[in-house]
Specification:
With about 525 residues, the chain is an alpha/beta fold. The protein is built from 22 helices and eleven strands. The protein has a five-stranded parallel sheet with strand order 8-7-6-9-10. A four-stranded parallel sheet has the order 3-2-5-4, covered by helices on one side. Helix 6 crosses helix 8 and helix 10 packs across helix 11. The relative contact order is 0.13.
């Protein structure tokens, strides 16, 4: 191959440029056969085809790309049939449905055949040692001498049993701190200062700065209502006055105390196989509680009508306001639904309590009891209530008073080996603290994770062994949290440690010095 000469030759001929590289036969073959496209079918498609061809030849495709895209979409939509709508499967979220009856029916044969459920599970529930040792009460019960009173404080103990308890204990603490005489009368005052300025959860400093000067001036002060008029957090001297009132000084009236102690002894006799130990359950499945929760169970149309009527009786218009949206599935997933008797029974059997365990059930009138209580009786035949332990004559003085009946339940639950709480409220909160005060700082209380229960009981393909493993872990978690110390904004009535209790190996004086 000769080099390219830029100078003209003698024959005046122009030089030839170098030859282009030879293309692959395969590529030449590909270029020789253009791709076959299906010809347009409709007039609109043919017009679009021509327009596209012109644009491509003019290399204006990038300039008109948006227009081409819109035109193509219009052509596509024109050829699509909308007679068939795509199917969307809306599956309920896990834990949003009440399927416990189906799960119980499936697992009952395995549950009844489970020989590993020992009758002494009640004796092994609390196996984790107390963190940092056992606790004991450290409140001085004797008063050496009182200075002259600054005046009289009168409060109204409003609400139910445990709200009244809060009112009295808080009033004792405030009166002691202000060096006032506390009066809880059954008559009305007329010419006294009624403090409507005391806000909810007021600090003890507010009482010192605002209420005490008025007390010194008027000599008599009425604060109404009073259940929530003192902050949870206060100086140690105030907290110990609260504990002294709640755990040592307050007593139920003699008739209530007599029948309550009798029922405790009867429960111990029913529990002779377990050394006198029994399980108490606070069950909140009354009709008003079910209605207020807005949860859906398996009662169908009958249940729906009952709940609508109960909501209208108790909370006129509250649940039917415009824009109010009720999502029962979300409520259940969040663990806000009250546990049914069936769910409580299945939970306890899964936690290792056999059908021979003695149960005390503290509750009001259970909704649709004939139906809802049946599976609980099947799982625990040795189940008692105050109505089964006491005669009608014994209960007659208390039956028409909800607070008196609650006081009986409170006492029987207080002395049980295991207490099971199924819903929030003042009743279990006070019992948690009282049991900690009695049992060395440990509440001995099963507080189930209701969010996890909602998921477990909605899993109908779960086996008994797997369910039992989850529930035993839940029981163990309650044991590990039996001893808890009070944190800021916690109630002293639920967490008496460390303000009102100290380690069993320390003296009250050494603990006080540590606090200061």
């Amino acid at each position: 191959m000769h080099p390219y000469n830029r100078l003209p030759s003698s024959g005046r001929s122009t030089p030839s440029p170098p030859q282009s590289p030879l293309r692959s036969p395969l590529r030449r073959h590909a270029r020789s056969k253009p791709a076959r496209l299906n010809p347009p079918r409709t007039a609109a498609q043919r017009l679009a085809w021509v327009f596209l061809s012109l644009l491509l030849r003019r290399q204006g495709v990038f300039l008109f790309a948006p227009l081409i895209y819109i035109l193509g979409m219009l052509i596509y939509i024109a050829t699509v049939s909308f007679d068939v709508v795509p199917f969307i499967d809306h599956r309920p979220a896990p834990g949003s449905l009440y399927r416990t009856p189906d799960l119980y029916a499936k697992l009952r044969p395995e549950m009844d055949a489970d020989l590993h459920s020992s009758s002494d599970a009640i004796s092994t529930t609390w196996s984790i040692p107390h963190k940092g040792g056992e606790w004991k009460p450290c409140i001085k019960r004797s008063l050496e001498g009182l200075p002259e009173s600054n005046g009289y404080i009168y409060v109204e103990a409003n609400g139910g049993l445990n709200q009244q308890r809060t009112s009295v204990c808080n009033a004792v603490a405030v009166a002691g701190y202000l060096n006032a005489t506390l009066v809880i009368p059954n008559f009305q005052y007329h010419s006294i200062w009624k403090d409507s300025r005391v806000k909810a959860w007021s600090s003890i400093q507010y009482y010192k700065d605002v209420v005490l000067p008025k007390l010194l001036e008027e000599k008599v002060i009425r604060i109404s209502p009073f259940a929530n008029r003192l902050s949870f957090d206060a100086p140690l001297v105030v907290q110990r006055l609260r504990c002294l009132a709640n755990y040592e000084a307050l007593r139920f009236s003699s008739p209530i105390l007599t029948i309550s102690e009798a029922l405790v002894e009867r429960m111990k006799k029913h529990s002779i196989m377990n050394g006198g130990k029994y399980v108490s359950i606070h069950l909140r499945f009354e009709e008003d509680m079910v209605a207020f929760s807005c949860c859906v169970f398996d009662g169908g149309e009958h249940e729906r009508e009952d709940m609508i009527a109960e909501r209208e009786r108790g909370w006129k218009g509250k649940f039917t306001k415009p824009g109010r949206v009720i999502r029962p599935g979300a409520i259940r997933i969040n663990g806000k639904c009250p546990l049914t008797p069936l769910e409580v029974g299945l939970m306890l059997r899964g936690m290792g309590f056999s059908k021979n365990t003695s149960i005390y059930l503290a509750s009001g009138k259970i909704y649709d009891a004939e139906k809802t209580m049946s599976p609980l009786w099947e799982m625990f035949p040795n189940l008692q209530t105050k109505e089964t332990l006491a005669s009608e004559e014994e209960l007659a003085p208390f039956k028409n008073y909800s607070s008196r009946m609650a006081a009986i339940d409170y006492t029987v639950c207080l002395h049980s080996e295991v207490f099971v709480t199924t819903q929030g409220g003042n009743f279990p909160h006070f019992l948690l603290g009282h049991r900690r005060y009695l049992f060395g700082g440990h509440s001995k209380t099963i507080k189930p994770d209701k969010r996890k229960l909602a998921l477990l009981f909605d899993t109908t393909n779960i086996g008994w062994k797997s369910l039992k493993r989850h529930l035993l872990n839940m029981r163990s978690n309650s044991d590990s949290k039996g001893v808890e110390l009070k944190r800021p904004n916690d109630s002293i009535y639920s967490f008496p440690c460390p303000d009102c209790m100290c380690h069993a190996n320390r003296t009250d004086e050494s603990r006080s010095s540590l606090k200061t």
